[in-house]
Amino acid sequence: MTVFETLESEVRSYSRGWPVVFDRAVGSHLYDESGKSYVDFFAGAGALNYGHNNPVLKQAVVDYILRDGVTHALDMQTVAKRDFLESFRDLVLTPRELDYKVMFPGPAGANAVEAALKLARKVTGRVSVVNFTNAFHGMTLGALSVTGNSMKRGGAGVPLVHATPMPYDNYLDGRVPDFLWLERLLADSGSGLNEPAAVIVETVQGEGGINAARVEWLRGLAELCERHGILLIVDDVQMGCGRTGPFFSFEVAGITPDIVCLSKSIGGFGLPLALTLIRPDLDVWEPGEHNGTFRGINPAFVASTEALRAYWTDDTLEKSTLAKGEQVERVLLGIADAHPDADLRAKGRGLARGLRFADGATAGAVCSAAFQRGLLMETSGPDGEVAKVMPPLTITDDELDDGLRILTESVAATR
Description:
- This protein folds into 2 domains: 153 residues, Alpha-Beta Complex (Aspartate Aminotransferase, domain 1); 251 residues, 3-Layer(aba) Sandwich (Aspartate Aminotransferase, domain 2), CATH 3.40.640.10.
- It is 38% helix and 16% strand.
- Strands 4-12-11-10-7-5-6 form a 7-stranded mixed β-sheet, with helices on both faces.
- The model has no long low-confidence stretch (mean pLDDT 97).
């Protein structure tokens, strides 16, 4: 452990909660260098929906590398990129009657968000963006400006401007009609709210505490944006690629965003890949106006194509995810019922679930107890008060049962 503690930056975080050295990973398990197994309820913060070293995806990547396939290509045309684009069109966009141009903004989710914000401002000529309480959109300055967490915002070192936070669904506990404040500000010339270029939203806030917006709230937001000529950006970086059941998390609401941000599991194997999907009429970029050295990592195209072909030709994975999500919900509700004095609350949708505790210290203690028993979980929420359940979508029923058993035992052990 010495080299990590002496040489690596103090900014490291996950490694502090899981103080072992990991060596191997297969499916829904990680193994430390001593051989101890851990059930993974983390899934690379949503980057490993198809599990660790998925054998089908691994074989495709290995074969591509062994035949000397192009690895780095900027935005050049390659066979791997063509295969990905055709598969994404045929298996994701066309069946959902979605008409988007595909932009490769760089390797990470923050790159997808930055591109979306820049494009919205370029198209509309406006600068203000509406975001929501407890949102998380990335750590670069533009993405951070529309993020809610004060600790992360404080790391910017400069004022974060041109973004206006509004209450997320149920932020005010249902005491006022949806969007009352935003509608009033938009209608009042004396409100001081600059006419927004866009609204950016997560349908389920992952880092914000597994806050799932109601479908009627999402529909209302889409209608509000349309009435006021505001572009709607859905950040599906963590909740897309099947995490909530359907491929896109917004499908359940029947809305069509103007811009969609994808990353994490779109890379299939855990390789870096990000997409910004844009309505064709919004594609007003000049060549090279937004670019990046690593926006064409071809092994990621290969893995992503294989994942689309293996898991998205039918609705088998979607149905499995929804069923497993209901299984998780039943267990979380059972834990809450077993500890009526603890103010526990089950949250989430699909296989993005959480158990909210009264405070962050308790949630952290539960995750620490789970780690000691062989389960990897992280906390989320503004005070780290939510223990997050996000296993790979491909987790088996037995593995899921095992992880939920450990979670149940860990909650009981901290009471």
